[in-house]
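Extended Data, panel c. Modelled sequence:
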Amino acid sequence: MKPSIFILTVLILLLLLLPTAIPHDYSDALRKSVLFFEGQRSGRLPKQQRMTWRGNSALNDGKNLKTDLVGGYYDAGDNVKFHYPMAFTATMLAWSAIDFGGYMSQKDLRQNLVALKWATNYLLKTVSQLPNRIFVQVGEAQADHDCWERPEDMDTPRTAFALDAPNPASDLAGEIAAALAAASIAFKQSNPKYSKILLDKAVKTFQYADLHRGSYTNNPKVNQAVCPFYCSINGYKDELLWGAAWLRRATGKDFYLKYLVENRQAFGADFNFYEFGWDNKVGGVNVLVAKEIFQKNVTALTAYKETAEKMICAFFPQTAGPHMTYTPAGLLYKPGSSQLQNTAALSFLLLTYADYLSKSSQRLNCGNLKFQPDSLRRIAKRQVDYVLGDNPMKLSYMIGYGDKYPRQIHHRGASIPSVKAHPKAFGCVQGWNIFASPNPDPNILVGAVIGGPDVDDKFIGKRTNASHTEPTTYINAPFVGLFAYFKSNPNFS
């Protein structure tokens, strides 16, 4: 190893494993990370709405297909409802409640479930016409991105898109099945009737996914509507495993166990497993299924655990084999349009796996090296603290947390005066004048975790710089679980 590479490796290792210097209010971060979802709501807002600068929007969604598709979440700073990332968001909110709900106060858990239910109520609508039809998206992405309008003023087409059997939609349907199955576990205690509805629909949605195999973006009409924003680049097989894994956990049925065993290799659980996010579920599948080994010693699934450990070992620079990449200041980094989505999702897996190890009194085995669960937690905590301000920019990447955070974000609703402050509509062209303005956002999208810095820890905080300043629901959702854990363990170091 060259001296410079050796020194860099040692520095990164120290950054990851040494206690961070800045204390953080993880309780505040948790509350705000959930509050953010109220700013992303579509549809008719409830009386309990706390993000009060938002108003009702998109109340006729689904009309062109003679169905009700009102509700759900806008995925990011635009006004389109993409069902694929929305379903992943719901899965991660549910997983946060299931595995980290015990670290939340009753109030925090309740608010997490409120955010989850806003998503699952809508996802139930997207699969309400199964077994023959699944709804893909609402809004025309290109037309929407050609305008800078707050959701309450939208005059761009709200076209709803659907796929009818036998058109394939395994990735979309597989993710929706995973979301509904995971949510059925999250609601099992507090709302058993709703939990059963979710699980029944999850089973039917998975049947569509498995029966009509293929990617939803292979359909030319859908491809034109969804791409290049949420194309299924990684294919559909990982979502079939992901859906089956959550249904196995929700039902305990051997059918899903057999499905996971028989399809693991053919569906690529050993391929591209260092990734996890709205498109690639492989890393998440392996970690999720590994719990069956820790809890029940289901040896038929051992290969999933072995692959999960290969991924977890890659977080440690001193291990043999491939490694995760970090910025000079220790942020987990993967190339992509929105950096912190990778950081959030992968850190969630790291913390989840640490919990599995602790509860079974085991260590992580990486060849000749062994790591205690707290070693995994230190890396996850380093990511969380970096996001909350312990970084070279001394900036919180969560809007509304701390004293110093970006005042311009790539978000239509936040950047344009609210309907309460300015009832008259802002037009498409007028909105672009606001987009280019140097003025700070008039509305604070509290709790939004934005895209974040580049590979050199540098951040350009302008709303024109979408990759750095745009928030997404699927960045925030994994952070809910992360903040919950460190809220209950604030002195962990």
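Strands lie at 81-82, 133-138, 160-164, 325-326, 332-333, 364-366, 369-371. This feature is highlighted in the accompanying rendering.
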